[in-house]
Design goal:
By secondary structure, this protein is an all-alpha fold. It has 5 helices and no strands.
């Protein structure tokens, strides 16, 4: 029994570590350390983006796996130094990476507008008329079925 009592205190920190996963340090957020670690994520992302042709950089499906890895890296590095994610400093770093790789990927060239009135009327009228016609057929059929019985 004496041996068991001595081993239990050693299990408590291990149990706490398992329950909380990667617990942030007790000292709080170390912003300097975070800013020193985040460029590693950016460098790794830049290396992976070299595999993607530049003209495909605006097509997210071409590099989504690399971007997800970059995002996860920034989150892990931020959490490891006791900071929450996202935070203004991490967001600023991520925005810098966006400016570097995606500055030419804008959607301001697309201006959405309503279709011409003639097409808009058809798009509204046809489903409405079909709904009324089907309702009429159902009502007519149900009244006719009553007479047959």
């Amino acid at each position: 029994m004496g041996t068991r009592a001595r081993r239990r205190p050693h299990l408590l920190p291990l149990l706490l570590l398992l329950l909380c996963g990667e617990c942030p340090p007790a000292g709080g957020c170390n912003e300097k350390r975070m800013l020193a670690l985040l460029p590693h994520c950016g460098k790794t992302f830049a290396e992976k983006m070299k595999k993607v042709e530049v003209w495909k950089w605006c097509n997210l499906s071409e590099f989504i796996v690399y971007y997800e890895s970059f995002t996860n890296c920034t989150e892990v590095e931020t959490n490891m130094v006791g900071c929450y994610w996202p935070n203004p400093l991490a967001e600023s770093f991520i925005a810098g990476v966006h400016r570097r790789f995606f500055r030419n990927c804008s959607v301001h060239g697309q201006h959405w507008q309503d279709p011409p009135d003639g097409i808009l009327i058809l798009l509204i009228a046809v489903p409405t008329l079909l709904t009324l016609a089907m309702t009429g057929v159902v009502v007519w059929h149900s009244k006719r079925a009553d007479r047959l019985v």
